[in-house]
Amino acid sequence: MLATPSPTPSDEGFCNLIRTYHVSHQSRHEFTNFNNLKDFLEERVAALINGNGPQYLAILNFTEDDLLKLESSGLRRELPGFRVFLDEENKTAIIKLMPGIPHEVAKVIFEEIFLGERARLGLPRNIFVPTGSGRYHFSDGLSKEPDASYKPQTRKGPGRFPSFIVEIGVSQSWLQLRQDARVWLQKTNGETKVILLIFLNIAAGTLIMERWQHATSPLPRKTRSGSLFVPEKVQLVTYDNNTQQVTGDPLILPINLLLDVVPSHVPSSEISIGRRELLSNGIDLFDGLQ
Predict the structure, then answer these.
(1) Which CATH architecture has domain 101-288?
(2) Which single residue of 201, 256, 270, 279 has CA 20 to 30 Å from 29?
(3) pLDDT one-digit tens code per residue, 207-235
């Protein structure tokens, strides 16, 4: 049984991120010390694994300095795995829990497919630089960690953003996953061009993938966040493990959006992940979770 939710003030520390990510009071925690944070995260990840808890949480009164202290002391490794979206001004973090094996299996299987298709097209190994889950800082003081990311090797220096981001969700996290896509597309000065959302519903036996990009029509306009870049879902691919059927294939990743400079010898304008690969890897994914 879950402990009583950590007390959270009604106004102090509350920011737009909590509203945007629809984090309930029960899923908020006011940071006071490491042990209380650990207890809170362990309770919530257990609830998530058991199918009765959300993947996204909010930590109040939490700054980047607190996060850096956890990392430099090695204490972050003692916590359940998570990705962080940090609002330094409001001292608030949105935490996305990574529930162990399901999350990692989905990530590894996709990376194998992606890198395999890159090799099949004859693209050099170093043409995409895997930048993992490193934290990126936006101009408005926010910072965020992806599940996986890839940067063209032509982009040098720490201030450049990845062109391709992967975000993985489980349980009932579609709403928040889609918000992650919007954040990356709106806050990276147009450098992040493709987002792949991977949603794994173990109970239903389904794997859903959405590709998001900048809208090309109508012309760019300012959104409520002040960004000129309008995020848009452009593809939906589904694998149903109950029937072992794939719909919406092939999964398309446009090479001209992944790279700043496309080599002239590339035989195709896209990385295309077809039904056979999607079916085989969908079966492998659910077999790996048994």
Answers:
(1) Alpha-Beta Complex (3.90)
(2) 201
(3) 999 999 999 865 555 555 555 789 999 99
